Amino acid sequence: MARDRPVYESYLHPVYGVIGFVGELFLWGAAGGGAFHFARGLRAAPSGARLAGAVRAACANAPSVAGTFGAYCAAFSAV
Question: Per the UniProt record, which residue ranges are transmembrane (predicted)?
């Protein structure tokens, strides 16, 4: 009879799971913040430069939203 593979999951250090979780939430914050600030910049820019204003607003504000989401996730995981 051949040996079957064990059913349990392999051991993964908890720190690696936390780092992956923080990274995932950082990416979600970057995507959501980029979309939100793009739409906000598109609406607030003058009529001749709407696309440039939208891109500028997204590039300026999305990293701070992503960092905030990552920090909240790290604090939540620490608790």
Answer: 15-39
The predicted model scores a pTM of 0.73
| pLDDT of residue 11 exceeding 90 | no
Domain-located, residue 8? no
Average pLDDT of the residues of the chain:
86
Q: Give a yes or no: residue 3 inside a domain.
A: no
Structural domain range at position 41: 14-78
Residue 49: Cβ within 10 Å count: 11
How many domains in the chain? 1
Does the residue 34 lie in any domain?
Answer: yes
Taking only the tens place, the pLDDT of each residue in 34-58 is 999 999 999 999 989 999 999 999 9
Q: How far, in Å, CA of 8 to CA of 40, rounded?
A: 48
